[in-house]
Automatic annotation (TrEMBL):
Disordered: annotated segments: 476-511
Organism: Cinchona calisaya
PANTHER family registered for this protein in UniProt: ZINC FINGER PROTEIN ZPR1 (PTHR10876)
Coiled-coil ranges (or none): 139-173
Chain intervals with Polar residues compositional bias: 489-504
Subcellular localization(s) per the UniProt record: Nucleus
GO CC aspect terms: nucleus
Major site of localization recorded for this protein: nucleus
Organism taxonomic ancestry: Eukaryota, Viridiplantae, Streptophyta, Embryophyta, Tracheophyta
NCBIfam families recorded: ZPR1_znf
Protein name per its UniProtKB record: Zinc finger ZPR1-type domain-containing protein
Keywords: Coiled coil, Metal-binding, Nucleus, Repeat, Zinc, Zinc-finger
Signal peptide: none
Length: 511
């Protein structure tokens, strides 16, 4: 092994690729990444075919991701490029960022962008898309991404002009529009979609909501899982449908026979019901275990390995019937749990307001669906629907999850590039958020759910006696129904199937 200079202890070492891979695999926690040395690997320059040097650094962006920075430089022809790859795990869900940029606002173009190798970038106004294979993983800004795309398109213009001058002229006109967007002279929408969930766009107003930036998280499709390099069952992609349905039927028979726990819950519930009054029995059954748990095969959302998902249906007092689903993967250890509403879609939305005044209020059970938004007026904090997904927790746990989520999403701005004003603003907000749990002053929690699938448990036996908890129902707007997909939903055929007496051939117009 050779060194790059005389002072071997001070300069990076030239190593082979195998040594670097072994070092990456051996790096376990964040401390290992933060103390990792700078590696240099001799690499072939694709421009002059001489040997250059690729520098590799394992590091951690605070509260964001473990990343591998790679920078290549050729001393013969001056070729340089850099790349960022993610050395951590695949995120449970994909992410979609939408940034509205107005003309003349140069500050918006300076937002930092982390683009993984699986992310695609779109500008709908220009009908322009940068597919994942066009640009590799990078750490840049909005302006840098657009300038790089324009430079790569312009690099081959002379060759295009010789072959097809008409196409080259059209690209010239497009480059004028693209560079106008990069200079902030035109308004446009910057959209970043990443199935791996490892991309990021800076929020300039963090920790407050950004009016120009929207973030949505979604479940990956089997096709996206396969594109990320994970093994996907053929039954998930629609192949061998008959075999899959047959297996599902056999699995259903097996599900119904599986009891929950070693002691039969059904016998226990019957004993309680026989020995107590109806009111006491219902109180004891409030959060009791279900009579049986159904198990069906599933796929891990992190590594796509086969695993089992357990599901049961229970009824929450003062709320509704809900479906609890939980899965764990033996291959990678990933665990996931979610709660789905049961029954029909409520006709109106619901807003829940809780005035938190004492420690007992922090222990209230909370069900927040993935369609619910959260507001804390005392902090001017507002989280849109889908930010935290569907969770079952307490008020204290919800505040903790909000703090962790904000640090994970906006934690990238804790780096060296963050100015002092933003740092003080963020640290002050985090301090105020933590003070909510110490109850130095009363505060208000508002959960607004357009589908009325969220719930906060009362602190009294009778919900009418809880004066700190209030529920408000409201009519959904057309925009809310459109976002939820309810405007185009047609249930007439299902209504006829479930209500045959209503569709009896009494009407002469029936065919």
């Amino acid at each position: 092994m050779e060194t790059t200079g005389g002072a071997a202890a001070e300069q990076p070492q030239i190593v082979d690729v195998r040594s670097v891979v072994e070092a990456v695999s051996a790096a376990g926690g964040d401390d290992a990444f933060s103390d990792a040395p700078l590696y240099e690997v001799e690499s072939l320059c694709m421009r002059c075919n001489e040997n250059g040097v690729t520098r590799l650094l394992l590091t951690v962006i605070p509260h964001f991701r473990k990343i591998l920075l790679a920078a290549f430089e050729c001393p013969h022809c001056g070729e340089r490029n850099n790349e960022v790859q993610f050395a951590g795990e695949l995120q449970p869900r994909g992410c979609h960022y939408r940034l509205e940029i107005s003309s003349g606002d140069r500050k918006m173009l300076n937002r930092q962008v982390v683009k993984s190798e699986s992310a695609a970038i779109k500008i709908p106004e220009l009908d322009f898309e940068i597919p994942p294979e066009a640009q590799r993983g990078s750490l840049s800004t909005v302006e840098g991404v657009l300038v790089r795309a324009a430079d790569e398109l312009e690099a081959l213009q002379e060759e295009r002009r010789k072959v097809d001058s008409q196409t080259a002229d059209a690209i010239d006109q497009f480059l004028i529009k693209l560079r106008a967007c990069a200079l902030g002279e035109s308004s446009f929408t910057f959209m970043l979609d990443d199935p791996s969930g490892n991309s990021f766009i800076e929020n300039l107003f963090a920790p407050s909501p950004d009016p120009s930036l929207t973030i949505k998280f979604y479940e990956r499709t089997p096709e996206q899982q396969a594109a990320l390099g994970y093994l996907v069952d053929s039954s998930q992609t629609g192949e061998s449908g008959d075999v899959a349905s047959l297996g599902a039927n056999n699995g259903l028979d097996q599900m119904q026979r599986e009891p929950h726990g070693s002691v039969g819950a059904r016998a226990g519930r019957q004993a309680i019901a026989q020995g107590n009054s109806v009111e006491i029995a219902e109180a004891l059954f409030r959060y009791s275990a279900p009579e049986e748990v159904m198990t069906f095969p599933s796929t891990c959302g992190a590594c796509a390995a086969n695993c089992e998902c357990r599901m049961f249906v229970t009824n929450i007092p003062y709320f509704q019937e809900v479906i609890v689903m939980a899965s764990s993967c033996d291959s990678c250890g990933y665990r996931n749990s979610e709660l789905k509403p049961g029954g029909s879609i409520p006709p109106r939305g619901k807003k829940i307001t809780v005035h938190v005044k004492n420690v007992k209020d922090l222990s209230r059970d909370v069900i927040k669906s993935d369609t619910a938004g959260v507001k804390i007026p005392e902090l001017d904090l507002e989280l849109t629907s889908g930010t935290l997904g569907g969770v079952v927790t307490t008020i204290e746990g919800l505040i903790t999850k909000i703090s962790e989520s904000l640090e994970r999403v906006h934690g990238f701005t804790f780096g060296d590039s963050l100015d002092d004003n933003k740092r003080i603003k963020w640290q002050g907000f985090r301090t105020r958020l933590n003070k909510l749990l110490s109850l130095e002053e009363p505060w208000t929690l508002i959960i607004d759910d357009a589908l009325a699938n969220s719930f906060v448990a009362p602190a009294t036996d009778n919900i009418k006696d809880d004066h700190q908890l209030s529920f408000e129902e409201y009519e959904r707007s057309w925009e809310q129904n459109e976002e939820l997909g309810l405007n185009d939903m047609d249930t007439t055929s299902a209504d006829g199937a479930y209500n045959p007496q209503d569709s009896a051939p009494n009407d002469e117009t029936d065919v």
